[in-house]
Known about the structure:
Layout: E1 11-13, H1 21-33, H2 35-42, E2 45-47, E3 53-55, E4 69-73, E5 87-88, E6 91-92, H3 97-105, H4 112-134, H5 140-147, H6 153-166, H7 168-177, H8 180-200, H9 204-232, H10 238-266, H11 271-274, H12 276-290, H13 297-300, H14 304-309, H15 313-335, H16 342-365, H17 373-376, H18 379-408, H19 414-420, H20 422-442, H21 446-463, H22 472-489, H23 492-500, H24 506-541, H25 550-556, H26 570-599, H27 614-618, E7 622-626, E8 629-633, E9 645-647, E10 650-653, E11 666-667, E12 680-684
Parallel strand pairs: 1-12, 4-11, 8-10
Antiparallel strand pairs: 2-3, 4-12, 5-6, 7-8, 9-10
Helix pairs in contact: 4-9, 4-10, 4-12, 6-9, 6-15, 6-24, 7-9, 7-24, 8-9, 8-12, 9-10, 9-24, 10-19, 10-20, 15-16, 15-24, 18-19, 18-23, 18-24, 18-26, 20-22, 21-22, 21-26, 23-24, 24-26
Amino acid sequence: MTSSDEISTSDITLTPGTDGASDYRQDLEKTNQKDSRRDASLGHSSPNEDGEIQRHNSSMNSPAPTLDKEIQLGVPAVPMLGGSRHAHAGKESKKRPHRFEAARDSHEYPGSLALALLTLGICLSVFLVSLDRTIVATAIPRITDDFHSSDDVGWYGSAYLITAGALQPIYGRIFILFNIKWSFLFALGIFELGSLICGVAPNSVALIVGRAIAGWGSAGILTGSFVIVAHAVPLQRRPVFSAAVGAMFGLGAIVGPLLGGAFTDLVTWRWCFYFNLPVCGATVVSMIIFFRPHNDVRESDKPLLEKILALDLTGNLLLIVAAVMLFLALQFNEQYWAWGSARIVGLLVGCGITAILFVLWQRRQGDKALLPPRIILQRSVAASCLGAFFIYGTFLVHAYYLPIWFQAIKNDTAIMSGVSLITYVAGNALFSIIAGISVSKFGYFAPPAIIGAAIGTVGSGLLSTLQVDSGAGQWVGYQVITSAGLGMAIQQGVIAVQTVLPLEQVPIGIGAIISMQSLGGAVFVSVGNNILQNILDQASAAENLPGIDIKAVIAAGATQFRSIVPEQSLPALLVAYNYALQRVFITAIPLAGLAFIVALGLEWRSVRDKKPTLEAALGPSTEYSVNGETLEVSQSRRRSGESVRTAESREKTSFETARTSLRCELVDLPGPEAAYPRQSQISIPGSWCD
């Protein structure tokens, strides 16, 4: 188009507002009443002999009707959005009400009280999911006594972790294709069912099956919790809420052994699972009452069979097979076979081959993949996934083995070891929330991730220096430093994907991150256990522990081994045990260091810059009346500086970036100013400016 063909000016009015159907009708009536004045100010349009639309210059003296707030927009395409009956020049607008309703709802957020109660429900569910990862640790001795199932010990934890880790990514697609609220409630129901089966299990097999089912539900709860935050909270405020949810995950992982021991000693181990039932009920109530999702209508309109096929079941099957073989190799190594045994090598090779097949399948599927390469390889998303793997590996090494250090070296009970760990729990939660507040205030998620990982690396190094005679000042101070660093960094990946990805792609990014968290934690907790056992075995083989049956010590556990060791041999055993735990803590140092390196790859993007685009508000490929002609707002990206093109009376444009402040002062479009010769006004609901 030449400059003379460009649209000089006009008015864009988006109706309805955000306060319900009554406001919609009122705004629609007000808009329709001003049609004549609008036509007078805009002039008339007609197709030229090339089929392109010409607009006559008109003054901007008459402001556009404003619903809530106005922003200045240099824009060549001017839709009049006044409802399906609204038309100009005798032509009827082609409007799709369901798309418009989706756009309107997409920017409605719960009020303060509703949001607080919804967040509380989410935090409780995440706490339970994390709690279930570690709560059986102190209950296992009593479980094995009841079921006479010492050979199944490893499966009580692994069955949960396998399904939780392998099914995380598919929930990323489920929350895109299906209703978010009911998908989350379904996951809660699965988790509750698994917990109930565990609680009433008559034998070991039933308990393992229940743990696997609970892990399946937990995958949806973890991914869904952050997806709900993304839909219920404006982006600028999400870091604080995401930090609160993440802090509950950390709290559950550390409190798990303490609570499991209390239930086992005071009531019965079955209450480790019954406990989930009433607490999850509170989450169900808060979700039903306070959460109103706004799914992408392009996906929610698909037939059920298409949705199921779009889940990439083949990719998920490959991922599950790879995860099962990896977890089996780790579990068998802990219990039965050495790393060099044919069975372990075969499982690891099979895992590697299946993982390669999975990657090739994802490339072939493209955007239809379980983990679309275009999304996963985005710079900040890739860095966030790798960072989650290393950060959670570091965190869970500390969460699992610091209590063992307190029990084995300091002779604390299970309950007192939990008390000694309060410093770590509180520091992690506090600094996670502080980091969230700072990101909300200053906008950038990269600095807390980088600084936090650096501090966490230093703290991990300090923890690895703990000795048998280390005083409270040392282990408290080291915990504060470590937890402060990890707390700052641990949730920044979740914030990053919410900032760099469109809202409809956020579930995939979050699912990938949480899957990597589960993988990192499971792998390095298992690695830590192998290091602990191997170092103790080496000490025994070197005859540094005369008169001590090291296998009996390991089987007795950290709280009971003193009762089977001669008093004169105890000091030597404590030195050897402490040395083994030091080696475990050393594994956390390179993990935190790698998290620091990966954090350097995060983009310096601000949560304050990402605001709703006009295209996202109107919905994809939606048609509206433009002074008697039809305008289509399409999802195709507009090249920088390209003039608006017309064909068969259709104008296709996209509004690349809509940047608003709390005062909604400006919307930027790509390209030189010459492409936008005049300015227009656009009225948008005030809630979009949150």
